[in-house]
Amino acid sequence: MNIRIVTKADAIDSKKWDGFVYNHPQGNVFQTPQMYAAYSATKNYQPIVVAGYEEDSLVGILLAVVQKEYKGILGKLSARSIIWGGPLVRDNDISILEELMNEYSRIVKHKVIYTQIRNIFIMDWAKNDFKKLGYNYEEHLNIFIDLTKSEDELWKEVHSKRRNEIRRATKEGTSFTEFSDCDALKKSWPILKDVYQRAKLPLPDISLFQNILARAGGSSPLKIFAALNSGHWIGVLLALCWRDRVINWYAGAFQKDLSKYPNDLLPWEVILWAKRNDYKTFDFGGAGKPGVPYGVRDFKLKFGGELVNFGRFQKTHKLLAMSIAKLGFRFWQKLKR
């Protein structure tokens, strides 16, 4: 097989790219040209795309994004590359996968400390090949809710305590609203900043979300779901809605308003919204590592759903820098305290 590799986005026909991802059995929003455009205009983000062609037919796509927390030397020590839901290749063809990954490695090896491939489908077919390419497999959980079930079935699968807290949210005057505009994003931002500061975790720059909203031509996959009480924003859930899946991407609530149960109401109402808008799966966006206690996983499981283990692949490109980065991250977390 003679595969032609293309690494410049403007040399890839965007309609063919979009169609290839949409029609691929494992196609997902993170591998689309729209996400490439959003990454390109986001602070401290640099997208990398590798496409494979057989004659004029697109047969593989890999979209990665290099993320940094800072500029300069500190930026180099925080640079990592994330590949969400990819690579995508025709018929799970290993030879195409290898062509894409070899070119990707050539591009990225001096740019980042490590690469992480975050699987959102079963990738068992590629495990041996990724191992050969120097990637370690790590188990990682997620929770899927089957939206083809009836609303009554979905409600019965919600834990009784969680059902009571959803009812209490309504009694406390907490309501649910959907948005998809930059003004709503600005209102949600103080909530997300508060949540991620308390969790001592990095939050992407707001420009990422602004660019997804602005560059989708009126059909943005990003939806903003808000919990309001007495006219005030107290909780938010940012979801990516594409093809038949709704992904719980970023979410949280002000700690001072937890007694009004925004975190209980929001997921349930988004599940109902997704069901009523003909989506097939609600993806909870991650549930930690098996065997490792994780309160977020326990919370999410109270909404029902199936626990799945698609895992991740990771390769360290710079061992010394990786060790320094781990120490630096722990120091950064201590400063956040």
Q: Strands, helices and their partners?
A:
Layout: E1 4-6, H1 14-23, H2 33-40, E2 45-54, E3 57-67, H3 72-78, E4 80-84, E5 88-89, H4 94-108, E6 114-118, H5 127-132, E7 136-138, E8 141-146, H6 151-157, H7 160-171, E9 174-179, H8 182-199, H9 206-214, E10 222-229, E11 232-242, E12 245-253, H10 262-276, E13 281-283, H11 295-301, E14 306-309, E15 312-316, H12 319-336
Parallel strand pairs: 4-6, 12-13
Antiparallel strand pairs: 1-2, 2-3, 3-4, 3-5, 6-15, 7-15, 8-13, 8-14, 9-10, 10-11, 11-12
Helix pairs in contact: 2-9, 7-10, 8-9
Q: What name does CATH use for the topology of the largest domain?
A: Aminopeptidase
Q: What gross morphology would you assign?
A: globular
User: By helix and strand content, what is the structural category?
Assistant: alpha+beta
Beta percentage is 25-35%
- Which homologous superfamily in CATH is the superfamily of the largest domain? Gcn5-related N-acetyltransferase (GNAT)
Report the count of strand segments.
15
Low-confidence sequence ranges: none
Walk me through what this model shows.
The chain is of the alpha+beta class. It folds into two domains: 163 residues, Aminopeptidase (3-Layer(aba) Sandwich); 166 residues, Aminopeptidase (3-Layer(aba) Sandwich), CATH 3.40.630. It is 39% helix and 27% strand. It contains twelve helices and 15 strands. The strands form two sheets. Strands 1, 2, 3, 4, 5, 6, 7 and 15 form an eight-stranded mixed sheet that branches.
